[in-house]
Amino acid sequence: MSYSEFTFQELRDKLSLQLVQDTSLFATLEEVQVSAYLETTLHENVALALNINTEKARSEMIIAPMLIEIRKILNRQISLFSGVEFHMDASLGLTGVCDYLISKSTNQVYINAPAVIIVEAKNENIKAGLPQCIVGCLKTPF
Questions:
Q1: Helical ranges in 1-142 per DSSP H
Q2: Considering the entire predicted model, what is its pTM?
Q3: What is the pLDDT of residues 74-107, one digit of tens each?
Q4: Please, are residues 115 and 102 in contact by the beta-carbon 8 Å criterion?
Q5: Other C-beta atoms within 10 Å of 65: how many?
Q6: Which of 3, 35, 51, 108 has the most CB atoms around its CB within 10 Å?
């Protein structure tokens, strides 16, 4: 079962989850200055990606440049993976391919813990992507 096949209701019932909505989650974070390169790239790419209107276009033209910028800001002390298989626990159905994954390691050969899975909203629907995000946070395979 792919990560994206889970529903929020299944996860809520199976794992006794509660949804807590906190609008102040990122309120205490300081703003980070991005490079002129990223600003120029996004200025050029965002409208084009939105007009093409495919997940692939948004992924390549918007998300990938932003993740590369994050890696630069963090002095290349993280690794980035795109479209990799990330099988956490096949017995629970936790298998699949991640859109993007960030690992707190400089190793680009294989994924090291801790890792963060980046999930794109499916069909521009944030709520539909929640189960995939939750499943990605359940357990690490390490």
A1: 8-15, 36-52, 55-58, 64-73, 126-137
A2: 0.73
A3: 999 999 999 888 776 677 666 777 788 899 999 9
A4: yes
A5: 18
A6: 3
